[in-house]
């Protein structure tokens, strides 16, 4: 238990999640986004957007989040409108005293940064601290075997996950995970000042990324197929290049970093 010291997890909190057309945050597009505002003693307030991404939504992506190209075109707002509204909502609610809980933040926030630049030539601004349960779990329990995706972590930490693979359901589950980790690890997480926790996650992400890149290099050294070996080495190089880009990979034009104190 945390004890008498108040934790940032006692609120207020924000939680954010996006569903997309694929798994590459630099080229794939936003389909849905949800921002959850959690205030002590109140029911969470959820705002959800549906976008027409302007491109076909692949069948594999639709199978995950349930939104087809036809549905997005019929019911979604233009992507440029959604991206602007999401950025404005974040700017309004997110500040140094209110953390933004994002599971696998480098994906969601990098995708948002890419979309903001694509549609509006605006840079993404980190205006408050980020709490990423995936990054935290990998640091706190680094030798545990098994998967580390949202469903796996919710099961491991006994956190409720409703409507998995919807942006609203995943955002709420992310906030619950952040709260549970703060409760379970008060010294390492729950009672750490938010700016310090944000910076620590940037450092942990860097270490985790370089470790994974080393693993890819070892796979490449053992690969029999030269083409496969080169593919693994290229991926390792890409991982290392992005190691300092936390919590978001900025478009190359931005020329700024995002991992300092918010």
Summarize the structure in words.
By secondary structure, this protein is of the alpha/beta class. It has one domain (8-192): Nucleotidyltransferase, domain 5, CATH 3.30.420.10. Helices cover 49% and strands 12% of the residues. It contains ten helices and six strands. A six-stranded mixed sheet has the order 4-3-2-1-5-6, with helices on both faces. Helix 4 links the parallel strand 5 and strand 6. Helix 3 crosses helix 4 (105-120), helix 5 crosses helix 9 (194-222) and helix 9 (194-222) runs antiparallel to helix 10. It starts with 12 loop residues before the first strand and ends in a 21-residue tail after the last helix.
The CATH topology: Nucleotidyltransferase, domain 5
For the terminal residues, how far apart are their CA atoms? 28 Å
Element order, helices and strands?
EEEHHEHEHEHHHHHH
Strand content: 5-15%
Helix content bin: 40-55%
Mean pLDDT: 94
β-strand number: 6
- Biggest β-sheet strands, sense, barrel: 6 strands, mixed
What is the CATH level 1 assignment?
A: Alpha Beta
Outline? globular
- In order across it, which strands form the biggest sheet? 4-3-2-1-5-6
The CATH homologous superfamily is named: Ribonuclease H-like superfamily/Ribonuclease H
Keywords: Exonuclease, Hydrolase, Nuclease
Domain Exonuclease: 12-187
Biased composition (Basic and acidic residues): 227-243
GO molecular function: 3'-5' exonuclease activity; nucleic acid binding
């Amino acid at each position: 238990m945390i004890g008498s010291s108040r934790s940032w997890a006692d609120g207020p909190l924000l939680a954010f999640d996006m569903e997309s057309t694929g798994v590459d945050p630099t080229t794939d597009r936003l389909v849905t986004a949800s921002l959850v505002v959690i205030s002590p003693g109140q029911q969470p307030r959820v705002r959800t957007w549906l976008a027409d991404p302007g491109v076909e939504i692949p069948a594999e992506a639709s199978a995950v989040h349930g939104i087809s190209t036809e549905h997005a075109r019929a019911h979604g707002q233009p992507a440029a409108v959604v991206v602007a509204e999401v950025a404005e909502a974040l700017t309004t609610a997110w500040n140094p005293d209110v953390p933004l809980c994002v599971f696998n933040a480098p994906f969601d926030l990098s995708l948002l940064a890419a979309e903001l630049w694509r549609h509006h030539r605006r840079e993404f601004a980190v205006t408050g601290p980020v709490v990423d349960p995936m990054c935290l779990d990998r640091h706190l329990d680094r030798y545990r075997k098994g998967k580390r995706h949202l469903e796996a972590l919710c099961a491991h930490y006994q956190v409720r996950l409703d409507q998995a693979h919807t942006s609203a359901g995943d955002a709420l589950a992310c906030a619950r995970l952040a709260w549970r980790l703060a409760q379970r690890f008060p010294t390492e997480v729950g009672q750490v000042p938010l700016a310090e926790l944000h910076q620590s996650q940037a450092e942990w992400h860097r270490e985790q990324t370089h470790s994974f890149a080393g693993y890819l290099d070892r796979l490449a050294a053992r690969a029999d197929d030269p083409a496969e070996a080169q593919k693994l080495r290229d991926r390792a190089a890409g991982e290392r290049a992005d190691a300092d880009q936390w919590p978001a990979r900025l478009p190359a034009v931005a020329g700024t970093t995002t991992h300092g104190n918010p």
